[in-house]
Amino acid sequence: MGGDLGPRSVVPACIRFLKKFPEAELKLFGPRTQLQSLIDAERQPQLSGRLEIVPCEQVITQNCNPLHALRHKRESSMALALQAVAKGEVQAMVTSGNTGALLALSRSILGNIEGVRKPALGKSLPTERGSCFLLDLGANIDCSAEDLLQFARMGIEAQRVHTGKRDLKVALLNIGAEPHKGTEEIRQAAELLEWDAKIDYAGFVEGHDIFTGVVDVVVCDGLMGNVAMKSAEGVIRLMGQKAFTIEKSGYFKRFFGQLAIKLLRKWRTQVEPARYNGASFLGVKGNVIKSHGGASSEAFYRAMITAKECAEADLAARVGQAMAQA
Amino acid sequence: MGGDLGPRSVVPACIRFLKKFPEAELKLFGPRTQLQSLIDAERQPQLSGRLEIVPCEQVITQNCNPLHALRHKRESSMALALQAVAKGEVQAMVTSGNTGALLALSRSILGNIEGVRKPALGKSLPTERGSCFLLDLGANIDCSAEDLLQFARMGIEAQRVHTGKRDLKVALLNIGAEPHKGTEEIRQAAELLEWDAKIDYAGFVEGHDIFTGVVDVVVCDGLMGNVAMKSAEGVIRLMGQKAFTIEKSGYFKRFFGQLAIKLLRKWRTQVEPARYNGASFLGVKGNVIKSHGGASSEAFYRAMITAKECAEADLAARVGQAMAQA
């Protein structure tokens, strides 16, 4: 029910998902009448057997604060979906709703995996050679060196699921590659990562290195990760905007300009947030996927694909094993 | 002498600058023979009267640490250029050398402007509507609320110089717009900014808002600012890279692809770091401009334009006045 478009982006994405994956079954949490009319509008009655509405009238708005959600929104679509995860009725849940509420409700309803100090939000981002998993994206503001080490362990499992690669290089996000750079926590985390026999630690990287593909997992606190991801999104949007302005300016190569814009759009889809939609909330007992709040139907579909990958590999269980063996 | 290309990018930029601005005079600090041969190669003898070499053999390498620079590099090209600023022999200095050394030497040779707790590095970035001044970009890791308030005051003066606009909106970079978001320092800084009658404070913004143009100045600590700027640079490079890959892939519209790439390059120049090169080190007694370490001759030229703007308006003096009146 969340995000800018609510079920208007979710329902078409679900229909597409069910068509593409004949073995999939979906549960939709929200007000029955609204969801049913959106489903009916898609005119795919043959899919209805695999698309169940779980009716609930309570929803969490975008400006609801996490504490309020914890206390008063236990019957909301988000909370009920998390309860379905907790009971094992579903293997993963996807939402584009209020992030703060999601993190708070996930911790409370699913609980932390044993040994996990702080669950973290992470996501695969495009690079020149493939992808890079960045975490934490904003779930945790204050992170100790030990927290960052745990993020590294969890991020490795997530990126293994997304790429199928076993050997992954891990780096810490910092403002320079030299060992004296950064905060005390970052420098201490570097020590811990260097000494960890199970982690291939590659040192400090800077913001631009997230996108070059020199490493597979980049670890940082939620403040830095959030800023890195959102700044990158901002620039991608800006480039689209600039191209559009030039298009309208009546440039004499307008014809070629049109073609160029088509190509630019194509290139852009390779890096834009929509394609890399779906952040995983790692460290809780269940697969929880956060879709971008501004997600289109296309972007929500991508988040569902991410959720499917996590469900099939049971990422939460793998994180649990990794933490137990650490 | 610094940066990836050293004087090979600086000398051609100087020649172009002297041609463009007939009233300008330049001093070049570095080994005489090397600089002279680069100048000779440009074959512009009529400009030589306005381009003076100040010979010095000592240079600061990219991995020299700030403390070492302070103690042992007092005769380096960077230190001598700063001394020329301190003596009033030049109105601004530009370098693409070691940032840490520059900050340390600037503080030591020029000294802080009265009342300034921590000088900060800031820079204009492109937005959908114009530009936005972001600071601190990495000079300071730990910043108190009071430091952030000072950054705001200094950033406003810098952005006034760059845009000519008097009324500017200021925001704090955070991971969400809601008042409970972020660290204690950020929330306290919000209080201070709200109560400051001389600052038009617009609240918290997120990383993507730096590039939309909703505000004119964005304030944050050096960790967040550095990550925001470098992530943005990384994505711009990635988009260029992706376009190049598709070009090589033998797409059947290869002909149009070529034209499209030309247009893409044109768009890219509007947002790429080269065009917005030249960060100002604000809060020291003199105009000090840091050019990107990977700066091409074109990019270094842009940093010189930034320096010219700062010199003409005497940004350092304006920051001094703003701090005295605060």
UniProtKB/TrEMBL annotation, chains A, B:
<dbReference type="GO" id="GO:0043811">
    <property type="term" value="F:phosphate:acyl-[acyl carrier protein] acyltransferase activity"/>
</dbReference>
<dbReference type="InterPro" id="IPR003664">
    <property type="entry name" value="FA_synthesis"/>
</dbReference>
<comment type="pathway">
    <text>Lipid metabolism; phospholipid metabolism.</text>
</comment>
<keyword id="KW-0012">Acyltransferase</keyword>
<comment type="subunit">
    <text>Homodimer. Probably interacts with PlsY.</text>
</comment>
<keyword id="KW-1208">Phospholipid metabolism</keyword>
<keyword id="KW-0808">Transferase</keyword>
<keyword id="KW-0594">Phospholipid biosynthesis</keyword>
<dbReference type="GO" id="GO:0008654">
    <property type="term" value="P:phospholipid biosynthetic process"/>
</dbReference>
<dbReference type="Pfam" id="PF02504">
    <property type="entry name" value="FA_synthesis"/>
</dbReference>
<dbReference type="GO" id="GO:0005737">
    <property type="term" value="C:cytoplasm"/>
</dbReference>
<protein>
    <recommendedName>
        <fullName>Phosphate acyltransferase</fullName>
        <ecNumber>2.3.1.274</ecNumber>
    </recommendedName>
</protein>
<dbReference type="InterPro" id="IPR012281">
    <property type="entry name" value="Phospholipid_synth_PlsX-like"/>
</dbReference>
<comment type="similarity">
    <text>Belongs to the PlsX family.</text>
</comment>
<dbReference type="GO" id="GO:0006633">
    <property type="term" value="P:fatty acid biosynthetic process"/>
</dbReference>
<keyword id="KW-0963">Cytoplasm</keyword>
<comment type="function">
    <text>Catalyzes the reversible formation of acyl-phosphate (acyl-PO(4)) from acyl-[acyl-carrier-protein] (acyl-ACP). This enzyme utilizes acyl-ACP as fatty acyl donor, but not acyl-CoA.</text>
</comment>
<keyword id="KW-0444">Lipid biosynthesis</keyword>
<keyword id="KW-0443">Lipid metabolism</keyword>
